[in-house]
UniProtKB/TrEMBL annotation:
Protein name: FAD-binding oxidoreductase
Source species: Herbaspirillum robiniae
Pfam families cross-referenced by the UniProt entry: FAD-oxidase_C (PF02913), FAD_binding_4 (PF01565)
Annotated keywords: FAD, Flavoprotein
InterPro entries given in the database record: FAD-bd_oxidored_4_C, FAD-bd_PCMH, FAD-bd_PCMH-like_sf, FAD-bd_PCMH_sub1, FAD-bd_PCMH_sub2, FAD-linked_Oxase-like_C, FAD-oxidored/transferase_4, Oxid_FAD_bind_N
FAD-binding PCMH-type domain span: 35-216
Family under the similarity heading: Belongs to the FAD-binding oxidoreductase/transferase type 4 family.
SUPFAM superfamilies per record: FAD-binding/transporter-associated domain-like, FAD-linked oxidases, C-terminal domain
């Protein structure tokens, strides 16, 4: 192993081959602080050429590679196991914006670029990069692509896969596949780009990408609606889509308990209503004409929803500050949960038309498995993705509750499967769901995945123990 480390130091500089515990600690523990792996070293190349050189050395010395971006994942996909034989390949130094082409509506960026930086660079060119999620201040584009991240804009713009036109990838052999043309039409064989997106670093290392940009909307207007049930939320979604069309860019469902947690742990943040309601929906409209036009559309939607008895109350943000305040209610749910204590998380998707039924049926099943547990249900209702989380009952130690995790996961995921859904909507599989997915994917699908893995990574060095 000393020979491997010496070769790495020669390739990228000794300062970027980290082996001391004090230097590597932040790279080895997952975002939720529940798991810490071990690594032979953390390697920090500066560019694609250095990344390729490191991967070639890993192939030569048979050292497993764990690619890592911002390390914000929730399924143990970006941290090594406890064997101590793998090297963490940190891509944070690959953080250059290579090109912005406003006419082609594209931006070429390196994998270590922080998502928020990409958003800001797009805005500086009077363009929009619409991927938006709670971790955008620390997650990286490489990680977003590797997990096919979703976020709050999927309803209008799609997942990260839909926002990418080309990739640069270092293969398991240390070769560089460069496809950064920025073309929207290119039917010249297999779509290799989509093979690496969502693969969580198990097939190769994404080092750069061409991303789609969009014209900046002239106005964004936010509204918060209060209602009784998820079924009414679906009726509101149908109404809003019929009136707003593609201008509807956000539609987020939140239960009352979610916002009670936010109010408890962020005392300055409360729903702007005189009384509590069972459910809330946060809507966002992005308009290409004017704020007045957007507000008029929203007033029409809200007025009709009130007349039809779909919603009980609503507020349309009257300023940017109020809009941010409404979004903070949604974005701080996960942090409020963390402050409340340990919980059992599920990132699931079901057909949009069946969400209300899924919640009703599965809530009862979970309560049977763990009486008095507290449901923290929220998410991207417009694209069928729920964060269906379970907190312990009042007075039950979270460490004791976490022992029920496997049983509760089984209840939830079996229900997801019966409703024709997926046990991972946007977080990926990582190591956390690697074994569980075999319960829900067909043998044919699993065999095809293993065939691809074997073909591209025959020595199983790329993020081993993840996905498949």
């Amino acid at each position: 192993m000393n020979a491997f480390l010496q070769a790495c130091r020669a390739a990228i500089g000794a300062a970027h081959v980290l082996t001391e515990p004090a230097d590597t600690a932040g790279y080895l523990t997952d975002q939720r602080g529940r798991y810490t792996g071990r690594a032979v070293a953390v390697l920090r190349p500066a560019d694609t050429a250095e990344t390729a050189a490191i991967v070639r050395l890993c192939a030569q010395y048979r050292v497993p590679v764990v690619p890592q971006g911002g390390n914000t994942g929730l399924v143990l996909g970006s941290v090594p196991d406890q064997g101590g034989t793998a090297a963490v390949l940190s891509l944070r130094r690959l953080n250059r914006i290579r090109a912005v082409d406003p006419v082609n509506n594209t931006m070429t960026v390196e994998a270590g670029c922080v998502l928020q930086t990409v958003q800001q660079e797009a805005a500086a060119a009077a363009r929009l990069f619409p991927l938006s999620l709670a971790a955008e201040g620390s997650c990286t584009i490489g990680g977003n692509l590797s997990t096919n991240a979703g976020g709050t804009g999927v309803l209008r713009y799609g997942n990260t896969r839909e926002l990418c036109l080309g990739l640069e990838v270092v293969t398991a052999q240390g070769e560089v596949m460069s496809s950064l043309k920025g073309l929207r039409k290119d039917n010249t064989g297999y779509d290799l780009r989509d093979l690496f997106i969502g693969a969580e670093g198990t097939l190769g290392v994404i080092t750069a990408a061409v991303l789609k940009l969009f014209p900046q909307p002239r106005a964004q207007v936010t509204a918060l609606a209060a209602l009784k049930t998820p079924a009414q939320a679906l009726r509101l979604l149908n109404l809003a889509q019929s009136r707003c069309g593609p201008a509807l860019t956000g539609f987020e469902l939140m239960s009352d308990f979610c916002l009670q947690l936010v109010a408890k742990h962020f005392t300055d943040q409360r729903p702007p209503f005189a009384q509590r309601h069972a459910q809330y929906v946060l809507l966002e409209l992005s308009d290409s004409e004017s704020e007045e036009h957007a507000r008029g559309i929203f007033e029409d939607v809200i007025g009709n929803a009130l007349e039809q008895g779909i919603i009980d109350d609503a507020v349309i943000a009257s300023s940017i500050a109020q809009s941010k305040s409404l979004w903070q209610l949604r974005e701080n749910i996960s942090m409020a949960q963390a402050h409340e204590g340990k919980n059992i998380k599920h990132d699931i998707s079901v057909p949009i038309s069946r969400i209300a039924e899924f919640i009703e049926v599965t809530d009862k099943l979970v309560q049977q498995a763990s009486p008095a547990c507290r449901m923290v249900t929220f998410g991207h209702l417009g694209d069928g993705n729920l964060h269906y989380n379970v907190s312990p009952p009042e007075g039950v130690a979270d460490t004791e509750f976490i022992r029920q995790q496997h049983a509760i996961n089984l209840v939830v995921h079996d229900s997801v499967d019966r409703f024709g859904g997926s046990i991972s909507a946007e977080h990926g599989l990582g190591a956390l769901k690697r074994e569980e997915i075999t319960r829900y994917k067909s043998p044919v699908e699993l065999a095809l995945m293993r065939t691809i893995k074997q073909a591209l990574d025959p020595h199983n060095l790329m993020n081993p123990g993840k996905v498949i």
